[in-house]
Amino acid sequence: PGSKMLVGDGPRLEHLRKRHPTAHFAGAMFGEDLAKAYAAADCFVFPSRTDTFGLVLIEALAAGTPVAAYPVQGPLDVIGTAPVAVLDEDLRAACLGAVRLSRAEAREFALGFSWGACTRQFLSNLALEEEVPAAVEKRAVEPV
């Protein structure tokens, strides 16, 4: 349902144009133009079953755009059970569900992936790494 805009480029572009003649192909976009495209969308459809992280998911969510995707590694790792996406083997059903999700919640969720949040998580993990050897060393010198 609705109109479809595809952003990007690649070796399968002509195949996709033939397969989806009513879709608008915007080509590659970057920076502010890409952010505006995300923000204008009712939902972001992520059709990949093999992308292992899916940075584009976070980009779409940062624009307040809910996500429709397959329930595979990548989307599962990034989104988990957060109510900002619909993960379904049927992408049409996922789209119909995603358009009903909160754009504000999508944006809020994406803030968890900000540079500041990622830095805090990284430093927290470093602190844990330092605590583990210290605890092991302490046990090694305590009498049994």
What descriptive keywords fit this protein?
144 residues; mainly alpha; Rossmann fold; 2 domains; three-stranded parallel β-sheet; two-stranded parallel sheet; 7 helices; 11% strand; elongated; glycosyltransferase activity
Textual characterization of the structure:
The protein is mainly alpha-helical and 144 residues long. The chain folds into two domains: 5-111, 3-Layer(aba) Sandwich (Rossmann fold); 114-144. Helix content is 51%, strand content 11%. The chain is built from seven helices and five strands. The strands form two sheets. It has a three-stranded parallel sheet, with helices on both faces. A two-stranded parallel ribbon has the order 1-2. Strand 1 (5-7), helix 1 (13-19) and strand 2 form a beta-alpha-beta unit. Helix 3 packs across helix 6. The longest helix is centred in the last third of the chain and has 27 residues, at 115-141. The protein is elongated.
Outline of the structure:
It comes from Aerococcus urinae. This is Glycosyltransferase family 1 protein. It is built from seven helices and five strands.
User: Using only CA atoms, what is the Rg?
Assistant: 20 Å
Gross morphology is: elongated
Strand content: 5-15%
Question: What's the pLDDT, averaged over the residues?
Answer: 91
Q: Write the CATH architecture name of the largest domain.
A: 3-Layer(aba) Sandwich
Enumerate the spans where pLDDT stays under 50 for 5 or more consecutive residues: none
The total of helices stands at 7
For this structure, the CATH topology of the largest domain is: Rossmann fold
**Cα distance, first to last residue?**
70 Å
Strand order of the largest sheet: 3-4-5
